[in-house]
Amino acid sequence: MLIYEMIFNKGNNEVTSLFYKRNTADLRIKFINYIRLELEIEFNKIKKKLLSNDNKELLDFYENIYRESFLEINVMEERFIKFSNAEVNYLVNLSVRTHEIIS
User: Fold this and answer.
1) Verdict on whether the full-model pTM lies above 0.85
2) Which strand (E) or helix (H) includes residue 89?
3) How far apart are CA 87 and CA 76, in angstroms?
4) What confidence tens digit (pLDDT) does each residue in 42-65 have?
5) 3-class DSSP state for residue 15?
6) 98 contact partners, CB below 8 Å, separation of at least 6
């Protein structure tokens, strides 16, 4: 039996991966939407913490990183959906790895 690991490398040792039974365009779209949601949740947690500490400069910094991350996802989205892989550079990329499971 084959399973498919969809992987988002988002920098040095930062990886998000999910496993699926199939490797279809619809599931790749679902994975990209999951990544977007994950980025949004992560940013909102940081934003809430920084607003409570009245740290506007650091918030601006993280807001730029957040926007850049979304831009990178948008740049890779079409290629990933079509071909199961895409990259911005060697550190930031999307891919699908196949694993054989013995049942």
Assistant:
1) yes
2) none
3) 6
4) 999 999 988 888 788 898 999 998
5) strand
6) 2, 3, 4, 5, 23
